[in-house]
């Protein structure tokens, strides 16, 4: 089939061609970027935290009238209260294990710092940024972490200290990501490190495969897998406990928790959010991401629908307009399939022009978003898939009008317009 | 004549119902998507105190030096205050009104022993905070500067907490037990929950979903009783001493600061003051880098703190893109529709209708499509705003609402946009040569 007659025919509909091509270009640009955003968010939401999330929940509570001082006596009193809570929770029939903790992945409350290979380094000169988790000898198995080297904490490792006390522990467990950053040879276990510019050495005794930091914000993205676990019960006027329920007993355990803690000590604050399953923590943390993905999805669907409908509308009009010419071609010997192919080719040509402009627009839009809204660079693959998609969309939309055109009988040529 | 054009438009639209429906759907969806995202954007980008925002300022002091930006990954000088500098600025008192403030989350013990204690949110502030942010009082007022100095145990309650503790009565003079200590109520704030919470963006991130703040306490009193801060604490080195006292002696930043300056002269002299203050600190040997400070008015401050989430802006941008595609689509369809009636236009023109009449006729038709699309858009915007609640974070979704201005805007945008999209097709229609049309028929 020759392109020349097609192009000269299109010249007579310049405005229509330009409008369809423009629409396809804009659609391509927006859909590529929207799908990229969706892909990015879905990937973010599906990251594994390193925890076994099923049957896990978090209890956060605050004591009223607890000692507020940072002196040794107050600290020991608060620690006694915390141990009382832990013992009560562990004695629950539906509970498998419990650990005190300052935070959990996705909770967006974190204590972050830097780990250094040298003593008394300035905080900013640390060798690796890390987040800190504080728990006892039950931390690793309560959260369901995989210990891949060294040993777990034992009861003898665990100490307690005031919430704002800056002394550092003798032993720590680190994630593989952090261990590999500090000791690229993979021999971190047994090595000495210094936390937060301290002069006190801490020994790495174990390595866990994976544990995400609490913060999901972009600022923490550079150290999302660098976590350090300290065998320390933190004492303050509030405390949190991560609880693993026995398999399938999550709801029962959660329901029994609040009355139990009030029974242990009524002078405390527990509200609706105090007992929260990890599934809820996860859905709260990623709500904005899921929402954004859903919104982009809806916009893509509307966009593709409108564009497809636009092509159908305009092509139908053209078919109607060229009714007689089609009849003439048929009378001169063109087969049905020739007419069908003609309209399909014509659409391919227009969509192709649109796609070329669209690729440029898509990349431009991505650059704009990168510049102003901290977006990542879009891989070329998205654009290529987008091009194929709009070409297919065009072919799909044009098929019906084109088939109607091919059904125009040759006899039309003999009638007046 | 307009009625005649309406009639013509209606006839023409009826003649090709498929095409008409297509245009109306496109406009409806395009406008609804834009208006829904706009309602969210409008909610989060509004000025929380429009009559005064240009007179409220947030200072920033570079107490961490260039290293924090080179190695620490900070992009700007620290956006909060350490205790020492916040108190020094309060002491010097160079603005008209000013307050250092920090976020607290103490528990309140109800007088009724059978009730469990409740956790409340609030801020420790200075007395000038209330006139500065113009908090509306239902009962009583804020405390006095004297109370600040005397470290009095007084507090201001929210309307909601007042209801909860005392019922709907004037509780001024009554006492409230916070963390085991009694505080005297001096005022009750009447429903006041500015969004974003502009006076402390650093700790709230701007938008707070769970209602207004419950309590305000004097800053010095809260420090005295050791009420810890509940917001962010950022340190570039580890405090040398332990505890809340250690935090107060450290260079960690955790305090928000705001000052009211009423004229350009005041702003200049305040800048001079900050400059002098930093120079003096440098000369005293506290740091060795060039003194640096910043003073931003509220709108600039909200902007630099990225209070409007990027997601909201991107959504609006993408939705506007969708609207443009819908308009291009409508322009194409209108063009097809109008040119198909070249014969009719030719007859009208030959019978003496001026070009202006052709314009009027076809723009009326475009406007009619726009109005129908707008009505559909209204319904879909309603659905959209209702759905925002389960796709967006609660704190932001709660702010997006449907009101008369949004509805009116939906209609106006739909009609104006469609008429704009109809301009080119109409222009083409008005160019139709009557003689040529008549002959070819």
UniProtKB/TrEMBL annotation, chain B:
Keywords associated with the record: Cell membrane, Membrane, Transmembrane, Transmembrane helix
Ranges of residues in domain MacB-like periplasmic core: 20-273
Primary residence: membrane
Protein location: Cell membrane
Transmembrane feature ranges: 21-41, 316-339, 369-392, 404-424
Membrane topology: Multi-pass membrane protein
A Pfam family this chain is assigned to: FtsX
Database matches in InterPro entries: ABC3_permease_C (IPR003838), MacB_PCD (IPR025857), Macrolide_Exporter_MacB (IPR050250)
ABC3 transporter permease C-terminal domain location: 317-434
UniProt-recorded name of the protein: ABC transporter permease
């Amino acid at each position: 089939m020759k392109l020349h007659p097609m192009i000269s025919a299109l010249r007579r509909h310049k405005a229509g061609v330009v409008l369809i091509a423009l629409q396809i270009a804009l659609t391509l640009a927006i859909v590529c970027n929207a799908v990229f955003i969706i892909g990015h968010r879905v990937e973010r939401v599906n990251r594994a935290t390193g925890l076994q999330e099923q049957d896990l929940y978090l209890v956060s509570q605050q004591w009223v009238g607890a000692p507020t001082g940072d002196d040794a006596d107050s600290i020991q009193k608060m620690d006694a209260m915390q141990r009382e809570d832990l013992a009560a929770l562990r004695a629950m029939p539906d509970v498998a294990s419990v650990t005190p903790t300052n935070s959990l992945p996705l909770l967006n409350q974190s204590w972050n710092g830097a780990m250094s290979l040298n003593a008394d380094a300035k905080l900013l000169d640390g060798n690796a940024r890390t987040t800190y988790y504080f728990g006892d000898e039950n931390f690793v198995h309560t959260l369901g972490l995989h210990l891949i080297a060294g040993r777990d904490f034992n009861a003898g490792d665990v100490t307690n200290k005031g919430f704002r006390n800056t002394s550092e522990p003798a032993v720590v467990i680190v994630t593989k990501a952090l261990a590999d950053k500090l000791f690229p040879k993979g021999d971190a276990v047994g090595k000495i490190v210094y936390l937060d510019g301290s002069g006190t050495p801490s020994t790495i005794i174990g390595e866990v495969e994976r544990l995400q930091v609490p913060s999901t914000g972009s600022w923490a993205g550079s150290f999302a897998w660098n976590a350090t676990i300290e065998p320390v019960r933190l004492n303050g006027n509030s405390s949190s406990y991560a609880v693993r329920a026995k398999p399938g007993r999550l709801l029962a355990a959660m329901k029994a928790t609040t009355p139990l803690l009030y029974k242990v000590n009524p002078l405390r604050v527990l509200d609706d959010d105090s007992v929260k399953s990890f599934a809820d923590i996860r859905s709260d943390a990623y709500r904005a991401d899921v929402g954004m993905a859903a919104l982009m999805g809806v916009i893509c669907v509307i966009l593709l629908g409108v564009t497809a409908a636009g092509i159908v509308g305009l092509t139908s009009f053209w078919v109607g307009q060229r009714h007689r010419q089609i009849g003439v071609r048929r009378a001169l010997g063109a087969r049905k399939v020739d007419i069908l192919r003609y309209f399909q080719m014509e659409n391919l040509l227009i969509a192709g022009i649109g796609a070329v402009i669209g690729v440029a627009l898509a990349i431009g839009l991505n650059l704009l978003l990168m510049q102003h809204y901290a977006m990542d660079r879009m891989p070329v693959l998205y654009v290529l898939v987008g091009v194929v998609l709009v070409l297919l969309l065009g072919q799909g939309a044009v098929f019906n009008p084109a088939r109607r055109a091919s059904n125009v009988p040759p006899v039309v040529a003999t009638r007046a317009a | 004549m307009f009625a005649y054009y309406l009639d013509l438009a209606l006839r023409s639209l009826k003649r090709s119902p498929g095409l008409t429906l297509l245009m109306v759907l496109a406009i409806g969806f395009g406008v609804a998507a834009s208006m829904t995202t706009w309602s969210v954007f409008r909610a989060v980008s509004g000025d929380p105190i429009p009559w005064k925002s240009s007179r409220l300022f947030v200072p920033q002091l570079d107490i961490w030096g260039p290293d924090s930006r080179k190695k620490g990954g900070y992009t700007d000088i620290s956006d909060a205050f350490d205790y020492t500098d916040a108190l020094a600025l309060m002491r010097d008192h160079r603005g008209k009104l000013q307050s250092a403030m920090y976020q607290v989350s103490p528990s309140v013990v109800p007088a009724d022993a059978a009730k469990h204690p409740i956790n409340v949110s609030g801020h420790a502030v200075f007395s000038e905070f209330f006139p500065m942010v113009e908090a509306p009082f239902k009962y009583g007022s804020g405390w006095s500067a004297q109370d600040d100095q005397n470290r009095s145990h007084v507090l201001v309650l929210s309307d909601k907490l007042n209801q909860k503790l005392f019922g709907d009565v004037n509780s001024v003079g009554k006492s409230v037990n916070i963390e085991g200590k009694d505080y005297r109520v001096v005022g009750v704030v009447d429903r006041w929950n500015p969004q974003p919470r502009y006076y402390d963006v650093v700790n709230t991130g701007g938008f707070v979903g769970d209602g207004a703040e419950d309590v305000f306490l004097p800053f010095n009193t809260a420090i005295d009783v050791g009420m810890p801060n509940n917001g962010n604490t950022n340190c570039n080195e580890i405090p040398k001493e332990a505890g809340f006292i250690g935090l107060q002696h450290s260079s960690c930043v955790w305090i928000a600061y705001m000052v009211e300056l009423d004229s350009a002269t005041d702003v200049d002299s305040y800048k001079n003051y900050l400059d002098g203050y930093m120079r003096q600190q440098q000369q005293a040997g506290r740091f060795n880098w060039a003194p640096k400070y910043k003073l931003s008015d509220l709108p600039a401050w909200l902007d630099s703190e990225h209070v409007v989430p990027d997601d909201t802006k991107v959504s609006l941008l993408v939705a506007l893109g969708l609207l443009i595609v819908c308009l291009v689509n409508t322009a194409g369809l209108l063009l097809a529709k109008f040119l198909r009636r070249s014969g009719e236009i030719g007859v009208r023109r030959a019978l003496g209708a001026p070009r202006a009449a052709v314009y009027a006729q076809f723009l009326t038709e475009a406007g009619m499509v726009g109005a129908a699309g707008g009505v559909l858009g209204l319904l879909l915007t309603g659905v959209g705003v209702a759905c925002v609640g389960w796709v967006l974070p609660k704190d932001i979704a709660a702010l997006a609402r449907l009101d008369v201005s949004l509805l009116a805007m939906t209609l106006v945008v739909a009609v104006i946009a469609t008429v704009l999209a109809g301009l080119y097709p109409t222009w083409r229609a008005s160019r139709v040569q009557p003689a040529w049309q008549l002959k070819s028929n």
